[in-house]
Automatic annotation (TrEMBL):
Keywords: Signal. InterPro entries: Solute-binding_3/MltF_N. Signal peptide: none annotated. Residues 29-260 form the Solute-binding protein family 3/N-terminal domain. This is ABC transporter substrate-binding protein. Belongs to the bacterial solute-binding protein 3 family. It comes from Pseudomonas fluorescens. Gene3D superfamilies: Periplasmic binding protein-like II. The keyword Signal applies.
Length: 274
């Protein structure tokens, strides 16, 4: 038996209670979660405690776990690919910021609705005359996109077929190309773009169109190999995600963590390569 599971009640007690209570009695008392370590304000490595992750995703998941009576720890597991491997193997239970993909479904149980939305906006220089009201307006213009971006499958097909996009290793280089005039726009998340603009000192030089061109969700995803993966946990998480989506709390938490990230920039902490 996994050491994180509660010992449970005596067999006689389990037979006397309803099925819901019997199921809850065997729940995990502790979950280990991870995610991208370089994606502020969603998640990033805690500069004061590098073994842990902080950010909007961590705050929301910690709150949800407390409501369920479960202890949760957000641990740094390495870069994105390493974090995914840790969860797929079951060594860690939960991925906090999983994009919905067909390959992901082979190893993960996604909890709906998503923990956070990640609106992708069109970023341009402040002096740009480019007018974008819909994705089709980008046709014929040169743009850039970080290879680490995780768009929806539908928009990915559209971008591949219809847009002239340069893929860069990270968002830093995409924004630098924009300021140098090598591209006309960059596709980047609303909050990740703001965080990177602050990091690079470009906040006064860039602007973002208000209308998202893509809205990929960032999901909680439980490993198929986690000893804690059971119907009770998935059901409770789904209920809490539904309540969270209706509450409007996520945007306030994102704003707070954007300010938190900006405050950390005042200290000599390395900028993330998104």
């Amino acid at each position: 038996m996994d050491l994180r599971r509660l010992a449970g009640w005596p067999l006689l007690g389990l037979l006397m209670v309803g099925p819901g209570l019997a199921l809850a009695a065997g729940k995990c008392e502790r979950l280990i979660a991870t995610g991208s370590p370089d994606a502020p304000p969603y998640l990033w490595q805690d500069p004061q405690d590098p073994k842990h992750l902080i950010g909007a995703g961590a705050d929301l998941l910690t709150q949800v776990a407390a409501q369920l009576g479960i202890k949760i720890e957000l641990l740094y597991a390495g870069k994105r690919a390493q974090a995914l491997d840790e969860v797929r193997s079951g060594r860690m239970d939960l991925l906090t910021d999983a994009p919905l993909t067909t390959t992901g479904l082979e190893a993960l149980d996604y909890v709906h609705p998503p923990l956070l939305e990640n609106d992708y906006l069109v970023w341009t220089r402040k002096d740009s005359t480019l007018v974008i009201n819909r994705p089709e307006d980008l046709h014929g213009h040169t743009g850039a996109l970080s290879e680490k971006s995780r768009m929806t499958a539908g928009f990915g097909v559209f971008a591949e077929q219809q847009l002239s996009l340069t893929r860069t290793p990270n968002l830093t280089q995409a924004f630098q190309k924009l300021l140098l005039g090598e591209v006309e726009y960059v596709l980047a998340g609303r909050y990740s773009g703001l965080a990177m603009a602050q990091t690079l000192g470009m906040a006064n030089d860039l602007q973002a169109a208000p209308q998202p061109v893509d809205k990929p969700g960032l999901f909680l995803a439980v490993s198929h190999n986690s000893a804690c993966n059971d119907p009770w946990l998935r059901g409770q998480l789904a209920q809490k995600m539904t309540e969270l989506s209706a509450s409007g709390l996520a945007e306030a938490v994102l704003q707070r963590n954007l300010e938190r990230w900006n405050t950390q920039l005042q200290s000599p902490v390395g900028a993330p390569k998104q």
